[in-house]
UniProtKB/TrEMBL annotation:
Residues 23-95 form the V(D)J recombination-activating protein 1 pre-RNase H domain. Residues 233-295 form the V(D)J recombination-activating protein 1 ZnC2 domain. One of its GO terms (cellular component) is endodeoxyribonuclease complex. This is RAG-1. InterPro entries: RAG1, RAG1_DNA-bd, RAG1_pre-RNase_H, RAG1_RNase_H, RAG1_ZnC2. Pfam families: RAG1_DNA-bd, RAG1_pre-RNase_H, RAG1_RNase_H, RAG1_ZnC2. It comes from the Eukaryota. GO terms for molecular function: double-stranded DNA endonuclease activity; histone binding; protein homodimerization activity; sequence-specific DNA binding; ubiquitin protein ligase activity; zinc ion binding. One of its GO terms (biological process) is B cell differentiation. Residues 1-22 form the V(D)J recombination-activating protein 1 DNA-binding domain. Residues 99-231 form the V(D)J recombination-activating protein 1 RNase H domain.
Length: 300
């Protein structure tokens, strides 16, 4: 326990995202290539757009790729154990790793100061986090991927890694968009690239797939720009109204998509057919704000 301070400091550094060296091939678009990144301002680049609040206090986050690297390094022993259990020679398994990540985001309720002498901030907080659900590898010449790691407790606090903490009400679409916009941009960039990281002493390559299954209905509506839960359009995946849903509880198909929601927002914004408010609302089926995050309808 009694270690010199510098030893404790370096041990502490290893626990923070930003300690491990890594590389992206091809390099990520619009994301800095430096890997020694710690905690950053969640509103970097947006400072002038959010009124009334001291911008530097509103959000803190890790850069997404740096946090994912840290998560994989935490799972290094599990990955090596998985390769051993499956009888795979770890020296030949350097590429073809696939990582499935579950994203979660929810409001944390009222976090107001009881004595109120700090800066004027929104009194609600939101946390965006992720969980590494599984890691699999497709060995050379093999058709089927082999799962070498599966999270046993995917809904546990212990497997859930916070990425961004923000002072914002989850119903504040504009501020949420401003803060999570860069996170979405980083995620999009990572989908088109692969991570080169040393695991078990060898450089290995990882691809990431993201599943937004940790959002509750309120958050899905917020991120996809839909009307709130009191809307006539009850479903976040299709265009059913309350009346239609009550008549037909079975035959629903997933018809909504993120791109379609974006197109509908443009129709809502420009009203190209000069329709009345009711006609316009009927046309866009409950899309009232610009959706900023693609939520994929998959079961956890």
């Amino acid at each position: 326990i009694f270690q010199p301070l510098h030893t404790l400091r370096s041990a502490e550094k290893e626990l923070l995202p930003g300690y491990h060296q890594f590389e992206w091939q091809p390099s990520l678009k619009n994301v800095s290539s430096s890997w020694d990144v710690g905690i950053i301002d969640g509103l970097s680049g947006w400072t002038s757009s959010v009124d009334d609040v001291p911008a530097e206090t509103i959000a803190r986050r890790f850069r997404y790729d740096v946090a994912l690297v840290s998560a994989l390094k935490d799972l290094e022993e599990d990955i090596m154990e998985g390769l051993r259990v499956r009888g795979l020679d770890d020296s030949t398994c350097t590429s073809g790793f696939t990582v499935v990540v579950k994203e979660s985001c929810d409001g944390m309720g009222d976090v107001s100061e009881k004595h109120g002498c700090g800066p004027a901030l929104p009194e609600k907080a939101v946390r965006f986090s992720f969980t590494v659900m599984s890691i699999s590898i497709r060995a050379d010449g093999e058709e089927d991927a082999v799962t070498i790691f599966q999270e046993q407790k995917p809904n546990s606090e212990l497997s859930c890694r916070p990425l961004c903490l923000m002072f914002v009400d989850e119903s504040d679409h504009e501020t949420l968009t401003a803060i999570l916009g860069p996170v979405v941009a980083e995620r999009k960039a990572m989908l088109e690239s692969r991570l080169i990281l040393s695991v078990g002493g060898l450089l290995r390559s990882f691809r990431f797939f993201f599943r937004g299954t940790g959002y509750d209905e309120k958050m899905v509506r917020e991120m996809e720009g839909l009307e709130a839960s009191g809307s006539t359009y009850v479903c976040t995946l299709c265009d059913s109204t309350r009346a239609e849903a009550s008549q037909n509880m079975v035959l629903h198909s997933i018809t909504r998509s993120h791109c379609e929601n974006l197109e509908r927002y443009e129709i809502w914004r420009t009203n190209p057919f000069s329709e009345s408010a009711d006609e316009l609302r009927d046309r866009v089926k409950g899309v009232s704000a610009k959706p900023f995050m693609e939520t994929q309808p998959t079961l956890d």
